[in-house]
Amino acid sequence: MKHRIIPAIMSGGAGTRLWPLSTDDAPKQFHALASESTLFAETARRVRGELGGVSFLDPIVLCNERHGPAVRSALKEAGVAPGAVVFEPTARNTAAVAAVAAAVAAERDPEALVLLMAADHFVADTAAFHAALERGAPIARDRIVTLGVTPDRPATGYGYIKRGSPLADGVFAVEAFREKPDEATARSYLDEGGYYWNGGMFLSHPRTLLASFDASPDIRDTALQALAAAVRGGGEIHLGAVFSEAPALPFDIAVMEKTTRAAVAPCDIGWADIGSWDEIWRLSAKDAAGNALHGPVAALDSTGALLRAEGVKLCVAGVQDLIVVATRDAVIVLPRSRAQDVKILKEMAARL
Amino acid sequence: MKHRIIPAIMSGGAGTRLWPLSTDDAPKQFHALASESTLFAETARRVRGELGGVSFLDPIVLCNERHGPAVRSALKEAGVAPGAVVFEPTARNTAAVAAVAAAVAAERDPEALVLLMAADHFVADTAAFHAALERGAPIARDRIVTLGVTPDRPATGYGYIKRGSPLADGVFAVEAFREKPDEATARSYLDEGGYYWNGGMFLSHPRTLLASFDASPDIRDTALQALAAAVRGGGEIHLGAVFSEAPALPFDIAVMEKTTRAAVAPCDIGWADIGSWDEIWRLSAKDAAGNALHGPVAALDSTGALLRAEGVKLCVAGVQDLIVVATRDAVIVLPRSRAQDVKILKEMAARL
Description:
2 copies of one chain form a homodimer. Chain A is 27% helix and 30% strand. By secondary structure, chain A is α/β, with parallel strands linked by helices.
């Protein structure tokens, strides 16, 4: 028997460090960053059809009211019909969203599992991703199975999960969640082994998931009130205003770090939460000179550059390892080694 | 008695090397490049009122049909009323324009001198400029007096004039005109002395100027036919279509290099024919880190950069000696040392 899974695509990210392309009106999930498709469309394509022992039902999308058209457009790009689009009156982080997603999934199919996932993550190996879900599904009836990404470097930008005792083939209890470490600590995790990146993908049965809010019952209860008060129609669910009163906490902190039901399914799926232009350069296809080009761009005698233009022509000569992103609103220029400074540049731009 | 001078502002330049700011529709004279005023307005302000022994009459402007509004706007910016605006049906370089300018000047005041000058040149020292005109004016009745700019470096982008025997205090016959030299030759000119940059500013009586077209009578005759066939009204002179048949030659080559009436008035006026973004950086006011900033621009940890934005925000971090020019149509990024490559980038952009 196949495990039925309802994907819950959470489209709440802002992507400040990918400014000026990523903005409040068009955050990073609605842009083609590492390929020719938007991250949202790639996410939706990753969870459709029947694959191995799992069968995906139509996804639930959870997003900000103003991103409705962008969501419709990205779903159309992916060739995916949504099971429901849930609109949040304000962003309350992922814990409240997870509770809503579980309750909506339970309405649609009481026996299906729900898969919480971000709209803006990158996964290179879809087959390995599906295999991890297949391993995790039997355990996910009574646990919340996190996909634990095998680290390929001592990244300091991600949280880590330490695995505990085995629960099944390729699935473990969680010994501990670790916040983003400094580099020395991250190295020690890799040396020690048994640590995985927390990729923010959670598979569980809705009943199990909702029961796991014991440490944060107010978040769950407010979320369910907002769902009860929702305006529905045409496949859309507009949550009630009470949603804005839910505490704004990440699902990891409100639920996963406190529950006894946490499990981890290690996997090597080429996952990334694309957090900088330098990372996009790393993930992109490049020309013979190591330049990642996107849009109407011309490069002369340049190497190792990320050159991206939207709605404007970009022409560079004689630059090395430089990031240039040009839109009709703003242009940034900085070395790839300083990609984190984009956040500062965005603040400087706001004062211009 | 004061010498009356009718300035003839030739607004025909294209400024390809200052793309993407300078375009066919808005060439460089209509932009504020080295100050807060457009080059055209600065040119017009430089030749008005009574100064020392010279009195300027209202200028004649000679320009392309499509630049009429930009010319009116720049004249208004300068607070200058035009004596006449002459529209060329097509650009035929400066020789034909000079003939028209002389003929129009003669109509307005048969005794006045005419001063041919480009709309897009930079002059730092207006007083020295006026003094040179005052020295040249008595000679200019029967000669064409070129202002010869004292070189401050072995520039390879300008033509040179070698002075001959003295004609009056501070005015000399011309021994020879020299085309743009290579650097070794330019250095030898500076070592030898008596060489000046040809700044393209010519003072003469219209009768003398027109008589000097002996070697290129067809240019003069075609230009005068076009003026005879012109449509006039409201201070505008729209040259007849026959103007397009005039050979397209620079005044220097068609007239100055062949006439026996050439003279040169050496002067040190801080002149430049701004031909590159690197030169604009050189001429601009700079911040403490040596950056020349123009428009909504923010620079973090950057030095020696030319950063210019129009209609778009520009934010840079950690760059050195870089040129970044951003408009809503195009963005260029290149080292200052490669400023000449802008022409190539413009061609590359046309193919995007």
